[in-house]
Design a protein that fits this description.
Length: 286
């Protein structure tokens, strides 16, 4: 699995275009709002962002916080705080935590606001570029902040394909950008975790292999959640393959002859993990 992910190149033409659009838009913006998946803050962060944005001031939104382990999210917030970066736990679909965003932006850019006031500049809007990898929640975020008037939302990577401006209130505008990944996953674990959360397309990855990799992690780090979701005892299985079959039997995913339909079970497992149904799970710590 990890080798399979490592060999995939994620750089279709529209992502190359996105990099160019980001660079062209830099003179127009004051700060960056970077949306990360709270379950995988490291792996869901494009390592090129600092270079692409020329180190503009930024706020980090730890999206899908209700799917992530609370203690882990607190550690990530503290981690960014030590770097002088504000990180907000949010859920862009429900709007949880987004009420703090505008005040955080104005605090981040208070020196710029004071400079405008000193020059007598009125009605000057702060402009924020929203960045994140595909399926990170950018469109849901924009829609929430824009009172559901704006961006197209689908649970599918690569829906937003062009830069779009949105007026959020009298003082803030946002620039939405297509999700941009990077040319190659140097660390196969990064590709694996992005595949777990659905940030890359399932059609190019064997779903059963992916489910087995995930079960290897969950059965060692989140066994209580796994057993609770599928009604299994903690000694129900040992290897990931045994866990997959035990889950399939519990759910009645059988084929003629009584064997477990492992592919169907794998698809179900990945859907339930991505939907937060197995429990609040974080796969990375600072």
């Amino acid at each position: 699995m990890t080798t399979e992910i490592q060999n995939i190149q994620w750089f279709p033409g529209h992502m190359a275009k996105t990099r160019r659009l980001i660079k062209e838009s830099l003179p127009l913006i004051d700060a960056v709002a970077e949306i990360l998946d709270a379950r995988i803050p490291l792996s869901s962060r494009n390592p090129e962002i600092l270079q692409l944005t020329n180190r503009k001031p930024r706020i980090i939104l730890l999206n899908k916080c209700d799917m992530a382990a609370e203690h882990a999210t607190r550690k990530w917030i503290e981690y960014y705080k030590k770097q002088g970066i504000t990180a907000l736990p949010v859920d862009c679909k429900t709007g949880k935590g987004l009420d703090r965003f505008l005040s955080a932006v104005k605090e981040l850019l208070r020196d710029k606001l004071k400079a405008y006031q000193a020059k007598g500049v009125k009605n000057k809007k702060l402009r924020i570029m929203v960045l994140g990898i595909p399926n990170s929640g950018k469109s849901s975020f924009i829609n929430r902040m824009n009172k559901n008037k704006g961006a197209k939302v689908e649970n599918r990577p690569g829906v937003t394909r062009s830069n779009q401006w949105y007026t959020i209130d009298k003082t803030v505008e946002m620039l939405d950008t297509p999700g941009v990944l990077w040319p190659k996953f140097e660390d196969p674990v990064v590709g694996q975790r992005l595949a777990f959360t659905g940030a890359v397309r399932d059609s190019i990855i064997d779903i059963e292999t992916l489910a087995l990799e995930l079960l290897g992690i969950l059965s060692s780090q989140y066994k209580n959640e796994l057993c609770g979701r599928y009604g299994l005892s903690e000694d129900a299985a040992g290897t990931p393959d045994e866990w997959l079959k035990a889950i399939g039997r519990k759910r009645g995913n059988l084929i003629p002859g009584g064997e477990v339909d492992t592919e169907r079970t794998a698809v179900m497992l990945m859907e339930e993990f991505r939907g937060g149904k197995i429990g609040r799970i974080t796969l990375e710590l600072p």
